[in-house]
Design goal:
This protein is an alpha+beta fold and 194 residues long. The chain has a single domain, classed as Trna Endonuclease, Chain: A, domain 1. Helix content is 26%, strand content 35%. It is built from five helices and 14 strands. It has a six-stranded mixed sheet, sandwiched between helices. The protein has a two-stranded antiparallel sheet with strand order 1-4. Strand 6 and strand 7 form a beta hairpin. Helix 2 packs across helix 3. The radius of gyration is 18 Å and the shape is globular.
Length: 194
């Protein structure tokens, strides 16, 4: 089920006349990226922040052209390892974060986080950016905000091959689902950094 809102009036009198497509809670499984993109579109439309998904650089090798308007990529390869999923600016600060989704019943596999992503997060932290990882654990239907320094520390110092769900309870902050902003991570950024 989808709902499109044309005009939104907020309690502070601010208006956003951007179209927002809202998905029902029943369709939330395996769609973290869509939810973050919807949230970022809301932030942009209301002039709150400017944060975007980074495109993954690919090298197109083979394309099928059955007709000019029906070109189809048949074969492509990643040019370079991607860094993190999202970056932008909020309240004069750089924001950089990764989004990870997992359907496991007990833990998040560390193999899903790549060494170059850890290196990148450490680098942006060193240069003063706000950096974090958003984890959605679909089996328990929870989404967590975890600061990058905690993720880096676990990645570099733990002997485990996965992050147990109890670790997220201790080290993360739950991002409550919101209809307009399904992954409203900036409310947590406000509390931690401003």
């Amino acid at each position: 089920m989808f709902l499109v809102i044309k005009l939104i009036n907020y309690p502070n009198g601010k208006k956003c006349n951007q179209n927002h497509v809202l998905s029902s809670a029943s369709n939330r499984g395996m769609q973290l990226e869509d939810d973050i993109n919807q949230t970022n579109n809301y932030y942009l439309a209301c002039d709150i922040a400017n944060i975007h998904k980074k495109p993954t650089p690919i090298q197109i090798v083979k394309v099928d052209y059955p007709a000019r308007d029906k070109a189809k990529i048949i074969e492509a390869y990643f040019k370079v390892p991607s860094t993190t999923d999202y970056n932008g600016v909020y309240r004069g600060r750089a924001i950089d974060f990764e989004a990870k989704e997992c359907a496991s019943k007990t833990s998040f596999p560390l193999a899903s986080i790549h060494p170059h992503q850890i290196t990148h997060l450490a680098s942006v932290l060193k240069h003063g950016a706000i950096a974090f990882v958003i984890f959605r654990l679909t089996y328990i239907d929870k989404t967590y905000f975890v600061s990058a320094d905690k993720v880096i520390n676990f990645y570099e110092n733990s002997k485990r091959k996965s992050i147990p769900y109890a670790w997220f309870e201790e080290n993360g902050i739950i991002i409550e689902y919101n209809l307009l902003k399904p992954v409203d991570y900036l409310q947590i950024v406000d509390k931690l950094y401003f």
